[in-house]
Specification:
Elements lengths: L1 E8 L10 H13 L4 E8 L5 H6 L3 E5 L5 H14 L4 E5 L1 H5 L10 E3 L4 H12 L12 E5 L2 E4 L23 H6 L13 E4 L2 E2 L10 H5 L3 E2 L2 H15 L3 E4 L8 H13 L7 E5 L7 H10 L1 E9 L3 H8 L5 H13 L3 E8 L6 H17 L4 E6 L7 H8 L35 H17 L2 H23 L4
Helix pairs in contact: 1-5, 8-9, 9-10
Amino acid sequence: MFKIALINPLKNKKLNYIPTGICYLSSYLKKNIDHPIQVRIFNIDINSLYRVIDFGPDLIGFTSFTHNFNLVCRMAEIIKEALPDRKIIIGGQHITMAPWSMPGIYNYGIIGEGERTLSEIVKRLLTKNEDEIKTLPGIQYWDQNQIIQTGRCQLIEPLDDIPFPDRDAIDELKDIIDADHFSWFLKSNLKSLQLTTSRGCPYKCRFCQPSVMWQKLRQHSPEYIAEEIEHIYKKYHINALLVEDDLFATSKKRLSAINDLLSRKNLTGKIIYYITARTHLIDKDYVELFKELGVVKVEFGIESGSQEVARYLKNFNVHTEGDKQAISLLNSAGISVFASFIAGSPVEKIEDLKQTEKMISWIYKSSSKNSCGISLATPLPGTELWNYAETNGLAKRTNINWDHFSALESIPKDISTIIYLNSHIALPKLLKTIKRIRRKIWLGTPTDFIKALPRRTRKAGERIRRKFKIAG
């Protein structure tokens, strides 16, 4: 039997989650490959690679993001040393946006959407027609010291042609479901999974890789979504879903249809949801639809408290007062928000940064259940911010430490490695401000911290009991 290992590399085992994208690859392979195959998905850190090696796969596939690309390559090198005659493939956002960064350790890179291309590669390997792989659309490979590309594969349309994600192929599935990853924004003792209902986004923010990766918005039908929710509710007994679309709330008609179908399946009120939306779309009708679905938290990319900076980052005519109105509407309906912010864009001045601080303070005062996050403007390859950095001599395609390209991680000790886009605020001053805001976000005022201490202590105890299976 032909064995395939699909790897989602983890920098931190605590951030273990369902890699939905790889799960789609597995289900598509099983639907379209006639030969017997075995697919296993490994959600692992570098210390657990022995599990992949013990499995003895014929083909190893990695997904990659910019912030973990160094780790992916280190893991590939270890596997290549242990299994030198096996094929290793890389795909995902980073290699699609920065194809020039692919080292020779990989036999092939998959550019763009991966399901069709990977399926065709596997078919050629099974029939011993490997020479044909180099003619397939959607790949790249090294040949005589240069990377050869074959162009992108045609996008899958309709998106419903892809089967439900093959979550059962994940080795650690039960542990992930039981891990209660989302208690920080919802409540404790949840069994949760991620759900993807679309690919792409109709907007073109300057910092966003996925909108470039997917090229356009494609959505699953309401029928597909309702059937998948029913499937995972009955099979995995979950009661919380994180909808990980770049933008879920794009159409009231679509959301209304999803609600109607879930009602017919008697699933209304059985699951709570975390979704993504845009503030300028929010009105009372949308809020009602959110309540009907069971939404408890909405994520917004506010990006800045300064209207000028927000308009620059989003490439869109946004209004900060509209942001506040949307948040107030949701809070008044008992729905909390998570608002993300970016500091250090090329146009930002110190006055703009102060407006961001004020906006974050306002959001927390609006509801104690609201939350925020702030990160340094990061020029991810393929985005307009990356083009700006390259054009202005701030980024080069050699000697880049991709580890510093994560918006979620702590600021590196060696700040000289940061690709800094702003000329109005000194980098040390900006980083100091970001750290102060992050401390305020976590701790709040002294009064807030004291009030939250019992809740935080209780949640810590619950996590310990779940981990060691101690009865509470």
